[in-house]
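Why do we care about 3D structure at all? Because function follows from shape, and shape follows, mostly, from sequence. That is the central idea of this module. The next example makes it concrete: a single protein chain, its amino acid sequence, and then its structure expressed as tokens.
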Amino acid sequence: MRERAWRKEGQEPDYRFSMANERTFLAWIRTALALLAGGVLLEQFGVPIGPMSNLGVPAAGLAVLAGCLAVTAYVRWRANEIAMRHSLPLPITRLHAVVAIVTMVVCAVLAGAMLWR
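And the structure:
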């Protein structure tokens, strides 16, 4: 696998910071997998909570969010690496708010489905 051009730019950052960035990337991937598992679980075993027509939307929402998290995890890891190589501030993200809002909406829908039953 050839090395990316951006990896040759700037100065090599301290390996501890690169490893911390990688651990953060892996944490986002684990979160994406957990959300995907939650969506699959909801789709497969959510029948006692409510009709599948009501549960398909939150399950799909979790799956879409998981996919977005996986892609964004890589983009964010790469942007952090580039910033560290050029001694720039780390880029900010709105991802935390998006994850919190989508999770809150899914929880509200599921709570409503359980109370409606």
